[in-house]
Automatic annotation (TrEMBL):
Single biological process term from Gene Ontology: positive regulation of transcription by RNA polymerase I
Pfam families on file: AAA_22 (PF13401), HA2_C (PF21010), Helicase_C (PF00271), OB_NTP_bind (PF07717), WHD_HA2 (PF04408)
GO cellular component entries: nucleolus
Stored InterPro entries: AAA_22 (IPR049945), DEAD-box_helicase_OB_fold (IPR011709), HA2_WH (IPR048333), Helicase-assoc_dom (IPR007502), Helicase_ATP-bd (IPR014001), Helicase_C-like (IPR001650), P-loop_NTPase (IPR027417)
GO molecular function: ATP binding; ATP hydrolysis activity; double-stranded RNA binding; RNA helicase activity
Top-level EC class: hydrolase
Region span, Disordered: 1-71, 230-253
Helicase C-terminal domain segment(s): 327-506
Entry keywords, A to Z: ATP-binding, Helicase, Hydrolase, Nucleotide-binding
Name of this protein: RNA helicase
Signal peptide: none
Substrates-to-products reaction catalysed: ATP + H2O = ADP + phosphate + H(+)
Taxonomy, superkingdom: Eukaryota
Amino acid sequence: MTNSTKFTPKKAFVNSPASNGPPPASSPNGTGLPSTAPAGPLANGKPTPATLPDPDKYATVPRQHEAERKRLPIYGARQAILDAIQRNASVVIVGETGSGKTTQIPQFILEAGLAKYGGIAVTQPRRVAATSLARRVAEEVGTPLGKRVGYTVRFDDKSSPSTKLKYLTDGMLMREILSDPLLHRYNYILLDEAHERTLRTDILFGMLKEIQQTRRQMCKDRKAQWYRQRVSDEARRGSGPPAEANGTDLDLGEHAVGGAVSTDAAETISAGNGQPRFVHELKIIIMSATLDAERFAAYFDHAKILYVAGRQFPVRVYNSLEPQTDYLDAAFVASLQIHTEQGPGDILIFLTGQEEIETLEKLLTDHRALLPRDAADILICPLFAALPPAQQAKVFNPAPPNTRKIILATNIAETSITLPGIRYVLDTGVHKARGYNSKVGIESLLVEPISKSSARQRTGRAGREALGFCYRLYTEDSFMALEEDSVPEILRCNLAAAVLQLKAAGVRDVLRFDYMDRPPKLALLRALEQLYSLAALDDTGALTKLGTWMAEFPLDPCYAKVLYESRALQCTTEIIDIISLLSVDNLFVAPFHKREEANEARNKFISPDGDHLTYLNLLRAYQAVKGDIRWCHENYVNARGIQHALEVRKQLRQVCTRVGMDPNVSCGVDLDRVLQCFVTGFFHQTALLQPDGTYKSVIGSQFVRIHPASTLFNSRREAILFNELVFTTKLYVRGVSAIQANWIPEASPNYLKRGQPKSKLAPSSSIE
DNA sequence: GAGCACTGC
């Protein structure tokens, strides 16, 4: 791919024109973005000197970090933000990293006493963000974590009845909607990182918009009801209509009922239990890091938009002068050029995956010896999700003296992990992206160009601590040709799980649901069809009892169906164990230089019947040594992964017990039943061996290959089932087990005989 | 012969 002559650094870069060069002074983010954001910490509507209820009277110890808080760019905009929030049902706040919007805005609301009728929820796409933000804010507020400020993420709940401000994952808020459909416990919901457009934030957009409308209507109805009651009371007493609401005007405005009702809340006439209950409007605050706020604002009924300056240093952007035919080679040359010619500061290189990272790691390691004797040394740090945690942690260690760190990372460094000390970013302009073709039901994982907003996000990674430099390994024309934003996840994934969630939350017509970006009709129909074939929906499209049962579990519908059938097949213990392990991406670790040993270790657990029973063997072996970490190390088992699987297992067992299903029913050594059980959820993901030794999928008649990481790679069995069908370099099936061909029609007679589901599929056993 | 990143009562 390269040779040592290319070590001579070529001048690949030039300071590009103003649009990409050093940003104008008015650009608050330093990334050279168009300066649509007005100058100053915040500008949009002047601050109004409204009198506010007394500040945080609940603090139990003196507030911490007060001086720090006041230095945050957002602090000066406090009053204007509060003003906008009070006057608008929905507000969009655009603020770059470092503006403090996520930690401060909820505190402003708390301190101002605005969350009168319920709590404040702040959603995050990632667990670590939710927990660390809550920890930080609890410290600033000066109360123990889990009291006034807390968090809720899967497996970990640090909240209590006294929690007023709660950070939670977006998935967790979705689950809360299932038990509290109008989210009455919240007065304010802040959706953070909205620009990431994860599947869950997008679904939440629609759900929250509906909840907001419903609550607003309820509020109006309650007020009207209250007024009518007053009128009839007064009439009975023989006096005129209530003085504060003469004529037909039913809007009670600021007139309080018992001193507690304002424009955005109304007391219920009767709350059944005699306790006064308040219906209050839901305030929605969308927080985004990109300047594309108009779309969010338009979606949320012309929400007010506020811009907040970030605390980001300027970053000089350089584009490649000519297109690079080999971005990996270009990254190699450019990184050495920076190392030999530029001042101190670590280099972050964005690549697409493990293989590229390991290739470049080897190239750089080989050339390290050729560095001039007087030059600084380099330390190469790979960073990707599948990397064992101990090695991942190395990127946070400061480099030894006179050494420059070169971090080779995937997308993980774009949003999930923030690295200190980066002054130089090398952007290849590509990433690996998941896709889904709903026509043929095939997932894909392919290298694609990134979007402009992604490129800006990568650029920003160079300016967190000082003036930075970003080298884009593509021309300025190529940059201009990139899509403005990445395709939202909802447009490129299987929607079965999301549709099941929507149905469970009471959305009857998922085709007409108010999506910010509406998925193609075909994708929604395919999801409905899949749920119907699993008997989660009846032939009117309504949720069946089984469907309701399935939605209780934090599982994809196929797995929930398998779990359900395990009762009839008496193998619930085994199914829970296997499903838990399947939720771990990299159960076996394979360090770069120890592939052979790792494979050998895995062979100890292999079941001839495939991956599912191999996983079961692994768990049994792990339990036999009582979860010894050393054992994990010796056997190349991802200890953290298996720990996670055990938490999933515990949770699944709890939910099972809650819904009246015994998790301890085991099939003993009759493991055929386990695989039969899997077929009940995966009959549409099966393939039959062909005379020429290839496999052809039962649905769609696609030629598929068994993935090399599967234990059944290179083996020939009559029929197989698979959990995933992914196109990468070839069309691969992953998570594969051998089955008997006659199990397939048995598992779903109606579906497969007719090719398309036409009649209602009854669950194979009943639910009480 | 190969694995972007997240998440869930």
